[in-house]
Specification:
- This protein is an alpha/beta fold and about 160 residues long.
- The chain has a single domain, classed as Flavodoxin domain (Rossmann fold).
- The protein has 5 helices and 5 strands.
- Strands 2-1-3-4-5 form a 5-stranded parallel sheet.
- Helix 4 links the parallel strand 4 and strand 5.
- The longest helix has 13 residues.
- The chain binds flavin mononucleotide.
């Protein structure tokens, strides 16, 4: 069986902390999805209709560039992908990430943090960015505090 990768995007560190714990508990490699142009505080202001994040999330074809690539993605069968929920779905940089590789035959497990929103249509909105034989599993929203045992049980339950 191939290895597992935990790839995540985190604008303010919340998802990063979760990703690092998932990687630790599952003994996986970890990769941070970084925007070529880092997000500033002003970029993240969702109250401002003209902010960068508002612009990107209103334009489903926006694909913020990523700084670098995962080393030898082929070695991974299972990829956890984590992100903050933005406007009820995944930030469009996650589409950039998915469209940067061939994930045919692989399983992608989503996890997210949010201010309270659930996954909603998040998984559905990502399917166009992968091939038809890529399996996307909705996974888990990490908003409360979870023990490593809880995380381990969740990972084991995915199989
Ligand atoms: C542009 C933007 C849009 C957001 N939209 C939502 C949302 O629709 N629902 C929600 O519950 N939280 C929303 N949030 C809050 C984030 O999902 C939450 O703070 C998350 O834990 C941040 O993770 P991070 O530190 O890894 O970036 C939004 C945050 C930003 C910056």
């Amino acid at each position: 069986m191939g290895k597992t990768l935990v790839a995540y995007f985190s604008a303010s560190g919340v998802t990063k902390a979760v990703a690092e714990r998932i990687a630790e508990v599952s003994n996986s490699d970890v990769y941070e999805i970084k925007s070529e142009i880092p997000y500033t505080q002003a970029d993240l202001d969702w109250r401002d209709k003209t902010s960068r994040s508002s612009f990107e999330m209103q334009n489903p074809s926006s694909r913020p560039a990523i700084t670098d690539k995962v080393n030898n993605i082929k070695q991974y069968d299972r990829i956890f992908i984590g992100f903050p929920i933005w406007w009820y779905v995944a930030p469009t940089i996650i589409n950039t990430f998915l469209e940067s590789y061939d994930f045919s035959g692989k399983t992608i497990i989503l996890f997210a943090t949010s201010g309270g929103s659930g996954f909603g249509k998040t998984a559905e909105k990502l399917t166009d960015s992968v091939s038809t034989d890529t399996k996307i599993i909705e996974g888990k929203l990490f908003n409360g505090s979870l023990s490593n045992q809880d995380i381990k049980e969740w990972i084991d339950s995915i199989g």
